[in-house]
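Figure 2 data, in text form.
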Amino acid sequence: MWQGTLEPGKGRVIQVNLYAGNEYWFSLGASGKAKKLAVSVYDETGKPIECETYKEGPTAAAGFSPDASGPYYVKIEVTEGDAAPVCLVYSYK
């Protein structure tokens, strides 16, 4: 879990260690004046990972199952609206 305030155009990148065979979801929610959010995932080389995504107003999510265990990077952004408190939660099964 990560929480803080995000400003539009100033995303945050968070490193996570993931394990092959698990299914992960990264869910982001905002309060305040954020209108739209985005979540994207990258491998250890910075290459974007193809994810199932969800975007609905001040919530967004990305989910995928990694083929290899190791470090990945999750980028969270406010894409429309003003600075707002946000919370990123990730889960797996």
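Caption note: The radius of gyration is 13 Å.
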